[in-house]
Amino acid sequence: MNPIARNGKDFWTGLIYVSVGCAALIVSRDYGMGTAVKMGPAYFPTILGVLLMVIGIISIIRSFLKSGSPIGAVAWKGLLLIIVSTLLFGMIVRGAGVLIALPLLVIVSACASARFSWKFSLAEAAGITVFCIVVFLKGLGVPLPILGSWFGY
Amino acid sequence: MELLANLGLGLSTSLTPLNLLYCLAGVFLGTLIGVLPGLGPTATIAMLLPVTFTLPPVSALIMLAGIYYGSQYGGSTTSILVNVPGEAASVVTALDGYQMARQGRAGAALTTAAVGSFFAGTVATVILALFAPPLAAVALKFGPAEFFSLMVLGLLASIVLARGSLLHAMGMVLLGLLLGLVGTDVNSGTQRFTFGIPRLADGIGFVVVAMGMFGLAEITRNLENEGDRSTAVKKVTNLLPTREEWKRIIGPILRGTAIGSAVGILPGSGSILGSFAAYAIEKKVSKNSKEFGKGAIEGVAAPESANNAGAQTSFIPMLTLGIPSNPVMALMIGAMIIQGIQPGPSVITEQPKLFWGIIVSMWIGNLFLIILNLPMIGMWVRIVSVPYQMLFPAILVFCSIGVFSLNNTEFDVYVMAVFGVLGYIFVKLDCEPAPMLLAFILGPMMEEYMRRALLLSRGDPMVFVTRPISAGLLALGALAIIAASLPAMHKKREQAFRE
């Protein structure tokens, strides 16, 4: 995973912490520090940012000194499909409506499983869509269209 | 008797047909979703939270509490039947519960869990009713410095109790605090860390974060290895333990209840530590310690009692101090804020109906749990056997629609996806998400208390250590961190989490 550090988990965690802490410091510079008596909007985030950077640096240093367990296999396919299907749902749900967005969400995400089967997923998509229309749209009144504006509704 | 009068008020609140119905619905829904493999109480509550937004505050919190212990009990069922604990607290139940199930004693294990939970829940409810009011009275005298230090203590405790490296957990807390600050600063009106996105002006919704980190990230992690999950049991018969078994579980239930109640009050712990501790102690004191891990009924009774007692007593810091002791309580606090109730020691005096109503409904909920679950066990068995490839798309649908319905905006769905990615990255890096969620909720409150404390002390930061209560709380937190980082303790801690 990482040829330099002996503990990949520590190294990457540290790197994330340092970058976020650093970003917090840079961004809060515009907000006004104030004084201890009258804390400005930048006061608290600056403290947090500094602390986070310190912890990140310690973590990076530690990653060179102590070895740890490897990060392990990443479920790239799973992660990608889960995220893509969720984003897709958000993008089309108003335009196309739940009648199209929900089955797509179910089927695209179901592809992430090694045991994906069209037969089951189609049946599941149909069942869930009906359930959601009845419970969420009709029952709980979530303002989502069954068929959306793209179809002239 | 003031207590009786208060409990009377609670009874009259919780026994209204509507609130009884919400309590029952909460317990049922909680069990239904909690039974699904891989879904713990945090994810369950996050998913069902939007449903309660339209209810009046008392009903909403009664239902959420019902969902909480329902999902916890459902998680135990899953641990026993398929050895897939939904969350850390039921990991130990799986050790002996699943072995019992394989030996055909699933019914006895489930009944033991139910009876133990009910007894523990009853005792813990009494403890809650007895100790919450005096604690709230003390807390009413707290100034901003004390509250700030109390929150620091809570966060430090959550660091100590997180799995994995202490250093990583500390970073997660700071990250959570920072994320909590996104949005408009209440004092200056400055938009912080919004990057010009108007939708972020109100901050990031905590349900969105919770669903991303506990829902989406969990799904992805589970997809890493879709091992065969064979149900040990297709049908549960013979629910009743034998006379011999009844005798064996009395001691463990009593000890588990005591341990769970005591540990549950600690900030940062909730029910997880209690069930681990109860199991470990039971293993030491039991006459049958050789059977542990091979299907000892004591190994189910003790952690299950502790688990439920802790779940109940973890409401004490939440209701009296406004400080969550675990992610579930963090969600509860969020729900209270959404309902327009300012969590803190004044809830008990300003909202006595709410406070006592919740306490009494907890006991009623526990009663529902036992009468609902044992007869319906056949249904839960069938739900447990739903294969994961069918399950996770459904979870994803409920998360997406639920998140959308919070503010009726697809923006929240995108934010949830982002936190799903982040959550998965942190899972891979051994960074526990629970401390981050706690810190996320506490962030804005902590800043506010720090600001007020420093204002009162004219900018002198020593105020946190010169006021005795505040100093005591900070010292306690420091002690916990130092103790956890000592090499000897460090090894023990790792061992405890591996078991």
Write the layout of secondary structure elements.
The complex is a heterodimer of chains A (153) and B (499).
Chain A lengths: L7 H21 L14 H23 L10 H21 L1 H13 L7 H22 L14
Chain B lengths: L1 H13 L2 H19 L5 H12 L4 H26 L8 H12 L3 H35 L3 H18 L4 H15 L2 E2 L6 E2 L13 H19 L18 H23 L6 H14 L12 H16 L1 H7 L5 H12 L8 H4 L1 H22 L3 H8 L3 H20 L2 H19 L4 H24 L6 H4 L1 H18 L1 H12 L1
Antiparallel strand pairs in B: 1-2
Helix pairs in contact in B: 1-16, 2-3, 2-4, 2-16, 3-4, 3-9, 3-14, 3-18, 4-5, 4-6, 4-12, 4-14, 4-16, 5-6, 5-12, 6-10, 6-12, 6-13, 6-16, 7-8, 7-20, 7-22, 8-20, 9-18, 9-19, 9-20, 10-11, 10-12, 11-12, 14-20, 18-19
Q: Report the β-strand fraction of chain B as a percent range.
A: under 5%
Q: What string, H for helix and E for strand, traces the elements of chain B in order?
A: HHHHHHHHEEHHHHHHHHHHHHHHH
Q: Termini distance of chain B?
A: 46 Å
- Please, what is the oligomeric state? heterodimer
Number of domains of chain B: 1
- Our estimate of the beta-strand percent of chain A is under 5%
Largest interface: A-B, 72 and 64 residues
The DSSP helix count of chain A reads 5
- In the sheet with the most strands of chain B, the strands line up as 1-2
Global morphology of chain A: flat
Number of strands of chain B: 2
Count the E strands of chain A.
0
- Morphology call of chain B: globular
Unreliable spans of chain B are: none
The biggest beta sheet of chain A is recorded as: none
Q: What proportion of the residues of chain B is helical, as a percent range?
A: over 70%
Number of domains of chain A: 2
**What is the residue-averaged pLDDT of chain A?**
89
Round the Cα radius of gyration of chain B to an integer and report it: 22 Å
Q: Notable features of this structure?
A:
heterodimer, A: 153 residues, mainly alpha, 2 domains, 65% helix, 0% strand, flat, B: 499 residues, two-stranded antiparallel ribbon, 23 helices, 2 strands, 75% helix
